[in-house]
Write a structure and sequence with these properties.
The protein is mainly beta. It has a single domain, classed as Beta-galactosidase, Chain A, domain 5 (Distorted Sandwich). The protein is 6% helix and 44% strand. The strands form three sheets. The protein has a ten-stranded antiparallel beta sheet, covered by helices on one side. It is globular.
Length: 303
């Protein structure tokens, strides 16, 4: 059974905790839309929280806060970095919890709809961006989970096919101007690309990809946070065709997924769905085959 409780959390007086007794989420109600916590009940938060930003509300500056957020891609200032510093409305609609902030001066209204499984550590997040402006806007819904320091992100390679089986490329792998493929935080494996979060290394790193297996994961303290998302090959995606990106600096690591680009007339919306899964006793230092097997088993058990 899923329970909803208003609690103080992280310096904010009013947050909404939703729990099934196995895992819980905490959603800020004084700022947002923002899911500031995700974890097993009474256990560590998989998301980062910034102590100096806890409890902030109401000003006009952009604050990162941590947690999980919804942005608009392609990334550009000031549109993408619109401050989410004001209270949000919430209501229950059947199995779904709806979180909706005020409309932005950018012309967008953002919305999260959250459904927690009654028994399993599984949650579905629907991200929606609606264009309220008169002019059409071409955008992607961009979902960013900002993970706590000290873990390792992994994304899968495309399924292996030999040269004789497939002559055409499998997918784009996109680099930023500051991407350093010689950085020791990267590991370029046969089945996985890994990026470690290191609190002692401040320089940022980022890659993007078109990820047809449709998942990315973060391993931290022998627990795994996995997110699943769609991949639609016939659609156009931002950033040279990315539906999946990972970014890190010395404070956090972001697991990012993106919807296809859509041209929205006034009143039009773009939706993007993720599914989050949690698992215990998953070690990051096992062979790739073992880690991939654990992840595939976790996905299969929730389908």
């Amino acid at each position: 059974m899923v329970e909803h409780t208003i609690i103080p959390y992280g310096g904010w007086k009013r947050c909404l905790q939703i729990s099934n007794g196995v895992m819980d989420l905490v959603i800020t109600l004084e700022v947002g839309p923002r899911i500031i916590r995700c974890g097993f009940k009474d256990d560590r938060n998989h998301f980062v929280e910034y102590p100096e930003q806890r409890g902030r509300t109401g000003d006009s500056q952009h604050h990162s806060y941590g947690g999980h957020r919804l942005w608009v891609a392609p990334e550009e200032r000031p549109r993408t970095y619109f401050p989410d510093n004001n209270p949000v409305d919430w209501k229950q609609e059947g199995e779904w919890l709806q979180i909706r902030p005020p409309a932005e001066t950018t012309g967008f209204r953002k919305e999260l709809k959250i459904r927690l499984d009654p028994e399993k550590p599984v949650v579905t997040i629907l991200h929606r961006v609606t264009n309220l402006a008169k002019a059409p806007q071409r955008i992607s819904a961009w979902a960013l989970s900002v993970m706590a320091a000290g873990g390792t992100a992994v994304i899968p390679h495309e399924p292996f096919q030999s040269h004789s089986e497939r002559l055409l490329p499998a997918r784009p792998l996109v680099l930023w101007s500051y991407t350093d493929m010689a950085d020791q935080r990267w590991k370029w494996g046969k089945k996985l690309i890994s990026l470690a979060q290191d609190p002692n290394v401040a320089s940022p790193q980022k890659i993007g990809a078109f990820n047809t297996p449709g998942w990315s994961a973060y391993l931290n303290a022998n627990q795994l946070f996995l997110k699943r998302f769609p991949a639609t090959p016939d659609e156009q995606y931002p950033d040279f065709g990315c539906n999946c990106e990972i970014f890190t600096n010395n404070r956090m690591l972001e697991l990012e997924s993106l919807s296809p680009l859509k041209t929205l007339a006034q009143g039009g919306s773009v939706d993007h769905e993720e599914q989050w899964l949690l698992s215990r006793n998953v070690r990051p230092d096992v062979p790739e085959e073992s880690l991939c097997s654990s992840i595939e088993s976790l996905i299969t058990s929730t389908v």
